[in-house]
Hints:
Blueprint: H1 2-25, E1 55-71, E2 79-95, E3 102-116, E4 119-121, E5 130-137, E6 148-161, E7 166-181, E8 186-198, E9 212-224
Antiparallel strand pairs: 1-2, 1-9, 2-3, 3-4, 3-5, 5-6, 6-7, 7-8, 8-9
Amino acid sequence: MKNRLNYFCISLILILSAALSFAENAPLPAGASENQEVQELNPRTGFPEIGDKPFVLFNEGLSFAMVNRLEFNDDSANFVREDYMLGAYFGIQTVNMAPINSVLQASVYYPVYHTFNGMKQNAKQVLLYAADLYFAPLFEGDMWKYVRINFGPGVHYMYQLTDEYHMHYLGLGAQINIELPLAKHWTIEVNGLATLDYPNLGSNRNVQKFNLSYQYHFDLGVRYSRKKPNQYCYIKGKQL
């Protein structure tokens, strides 16, 4: 279990380090410079004109989650409970929102497999589910025209109904978002999220406290947008 925790911590550190390094070296938009200022003023208000108006993008798709709850014991083996869940996600991403864009993602899950210290466990109830939210500032990349990689360190919350408790998780995470521009208005999304959470905010806090929880989430989704078309894409239409 210690090796698994070490791997999780190393992966989380690598994601955060990559995000910070990428943000520092991210290229400026075309035609922009560090000292450039907007000179055009609105004649009615006297404020600078907004060149690129803010708007939002909507993403949706399928999601897979692996939720781990750990109990540390001094005099016996540690306990590890794992829940494997399938579901769907819906995301909202801002564009042209100064000073930085952000993403809000909501997911719903149904647990399909449970283990205790690696041993399969059968659920006692049929109606078990989970739902979570993830909010993060978005560091956008444009290293390759046909593969766009974004980073988002942020805040994570999950509610999960188990056989015993109403679980509430709250913690921090880091997300990698890969955008594959399929066509002019269609983009395929692949997301990977790792979180480290405090799991004792629910009904288990007075009965069975867990030391910590860590989670992995993987998403495969799609986005259709006419406001933000893909300049470079795999399938080129007549208007590109």
